[in-house]
Structures are given as C-alpha cells and as structure tokens.
Amino acid sequence: MSMTRRMLLSSTAPLLMGVPAPGDLLTPPEQAAGRRKKLRVGIVGCGRMGQFFAEVYRFSPDTELAAIAEYNDERRKVVGGRFAVKALFKEAPEMVRSEKLDIVAIITPTKFMKAAVLAAAEAGVRGISTDKPIAAKLADADAMVDACNRRKLVFAGGNLQRARWQTQIAAQRLRSGVYGKIIGATVMGYGGEISGGGCQHVAVLRLLTGAEITQVETYGYPAKTLAADASDQGLMINGRWRLSSGIDCMVFGEREPFSGVEVRAERATVRWSWYAPLLFEGSGKTAPRKEVDPAYPPFPWASMLDRPPLRKDDDYLVSSIRSFIDAVHLGRPSSSLFVSGHDLRQSLEAAIASKASAMEGGRPIALPLADRSLTLMPSPYRWLGGDAVGSPQAVKDASGETR
Fold first, then answer.
1. Beta strands across the sheet bearing 103-106
2. CATH number, position 273
3. Whose CB has fewer CB within 10 Å in the chain, the N or C terminal residue?
4. Per-residue pLDDT tens for 307-316?
5. Which pLDDT tens digit goes with each residue over 228-284?
6. What is the total count of domains within the chain?
7. Is residue 190 part of a domain?
8. pLDDT value at position 288?
9. Pairwise CA distance, residues 198 & 349, whole Å
10. Is residue 184 in a domain?
C-alpha cells in the first residue's frame, strides 16, 4: 500500500537535510525576458522533432527563430510559413554562410549530422546542438566534439531524459554527498536499440553517479543480431560496467522490475525510470527500502508547457534547450550543459563497446576505445529519416494545422 502524502513528506525531511538548492541551474523566465539581447537561432532539419525544437525557441523570450534549413522542399515552405521565418535554405552550409546566427540546432537524421555540425562550427556560431544518436562511427562523433572544442563553441546534446529538471536535481543531491557515499548502481532495460534509446540509460547513469564507464564485460542476444557486425536492432545486453568511481554497475536487457537506472547511496536510493526519479529511504542492503517524497522544487519554465503543441512531458526538451541558451548567453562551457555533445559521444562509445564485448563472449573491453573506427548502426528511421524509409510527415501536420 502506498504511503499518504503527509507520511511521505514527513519521512523525507531527514533525507533532505543539507541538500543544496537548485541555485543557477536555469535562469528563471523573469530574468530572461527583456534583459538579454535575443540570440539568433537557425534550425537544421524541420521534421517532426525539429518542429518541437522550433516551438521551444519560438516561445523562449531570449531567442529569435531566424532561419531554417530543410531538405524537403514542400516541408521547408510550410514550416517556414508556420514559424514566420523568411530565411529558408535547402542545405545547412548555405544557411550558416548566409545568416549571422548565434545558435544552430541540428535535428537531422544521424547520417547528416556530422556535415551540418562541422559547417556550423566553421561558420563561427557561438553554440551548436545535435541529437541522438550523434553518429554511427565513433570517429565521426570525435570529429564533431573536437571541432567545437577547438573553436571553444558550446556543443549541446538535445532530446535526452537526463535533461529533465527533477533528474538534474536528483543528481545534484546524490553527487553532493547528502545521501552518503554512492555504493552501487544498476541499469535495467538496456536493449532493443542501444545506440538510440540506450543513449538515455548511459547518459542518466553518468549524470547520477558523476562517473565514466571505464570497462565493459557484457553478453548479448539474440545471436542473429550479434552476428550482424554493425547493427543493434533488437539487441539485449546483460553484464557489468566498471565505473571510474570503482563501482561495478550491473546491466540487464530485461525491463523488469523496472526500466531505467538505479543508484544506491549509503542512506538513500534514487531510481530513474523515464520520468521524475523516485527516492527511497535506505540502500536496501540492511533493511527494506521505503519510498519517500523527493520534494523537488518547481520547474521554473513550466509555463512554457502550457503552450500547444508542447506537452507536460516535453519538460526535458525545454530544460535541455534552456540549459543550452543559458550557456551561450553566459559564456559557460559545454560541461555545464544538461546534455552535451560529449554526453552523446559517451553513450555511443558505451554501446559500441558493449556489443563488441558481447560478440566476443564477454571479453572485458577498456574505455576509451582504442579503435575509433568502430561503428554501430541505428535504425533506418534514425539513420535516414522518415522521408527515406516510407514514413513521411503529412504536410498538414508540418503546417501545424492539426494542433
């Protein structure tokens, strides 16, 4: 039987003693509105997800949606009309050469991300974002991260659950030590498509623990997927990841008893399972754990989620983009971001290493990987996009008429 709200709040108090406040994780709306010069934003790739990114930038008081690059001629025209953008281009290089942009957000299929990122970096914009998976070949992810680092540009990731406000707060609490030393971690549901959806698990694990994966020792099934050298479609991974903190994180492809990431500290356990992380009193080692209310502070940009077509569950997309906007405005490094290009690269590397270990019957493999040419192909939809695989967006949907 679940605890009442009063019981939950009562039992939470000892766990939250000394927990740091959110601080300047995100600039509040009232400070962003009217106090900053608007950043000029260009969107590359205005398919279904690109249109959600465009909505967030349109609703943000300190950005101006200034240009769009979209390969599909018909979609480019209707999306430009929908967002009242007149600077419309077919290709990203043409857009970044022609327009003086502060931010370029790249939401293309994975195959086309590298060329767009490098073109934007060469053009000298202040910030670039891309999405998951960042690449198929690890060397391509390296090239993007390195190009942005050389030019001291902010390189952000995009639509990852680790950006959810409550997940960031939970990580801040865990890593500040208020729950005691972190003593264990488990990943459940690492399977199906580890280069795509699996990005989420690795990114959240690294965030909550503040550690990197330094070795993988994994097994996988089905055998048919393991035999397909560059594919991860339907792949299920079980095994162990050694973290830089010295913890061995157990990894399971199955989604039961939960799907997500659990991190255990001496006095509390945090479990992320795609939404706001749950908080449990105790580590479960010596006594049964008891769920308590984590008492998360309100999300400062919640009002944006009341503006259709954005939904309540889009809070992590909003916070990811707001973190990026703040970093560009305030001159913060990429390491300050809720999601960075480095985070996407690390998720890809863990996926590649996990399949490589499984293909060799669980041979331990150290990270970072020495062979940067290793590749793991995402699904055709992620790699090539809906237009190429027979799932194009209807023009009426792209125009926003069905909202």
1. 87-89, 63-69, 39-44, 103-106, 127-129, 154-156
2. 3.30.360.10
3. N
4. 999 999 999 9
5. 777 888 999 999 999 999 999 999 999 999 999 999 999 999 999 999 999 999 876
6. 1
7. yes
8. 64
9. 11
10. yes
